[in-house]
Structures are given as structure tokens and as C-alpha cells.
Design a protein that fits this description.
About 90% of the residues lie in helices and about 0% in strands. The two termini are about 15 Å apart.
Length: about 80
Amino acid sequence: MKTLINTLAITLIVGTALAETDTLSSAVQKGLFEEEVNRDFRAAIDAYESAVESFDRDRQLAATALFRLAENYRR
């Protein structure tokens, strides 16, 4: 039962990380579009800031996953 719960938790973490990666990629693409095509530098800055914030959340999620992995190996 514990193995099933741990597997589900890791699956949830990985799925969330993949979704965040799509968000990060979309934000950078939007920033490039606003910067290069529309010349709307304020919108580009907002998109890039969003990408940076997503990256920070990804780092926190990756750290949590690494901690949980280590705890499972310890057990």
C-alpha cells in the first residue's frame, strides 16, 4: 500500500512538473513574440517575468521530489 501511495505521489509531482515546463515554454515564446513582432516591451517583460517565476516553482518542485526520493531510498 505504501508503494502505491509513493508511486501516485511521484506521478503527481512529475505530471505537475511537466505542466509547469509547458507554462515556462509558453511564457518565453509569448515574450519573444511580444518583443520581436509587436515591439511591446512591457508585455515582453511581463511574459519573461512569468517564465522566471515558473522556473522558481519548478526548482521548488524538483527539490521536493528529490527529498521524497531520498526518503524512499532511506526507508
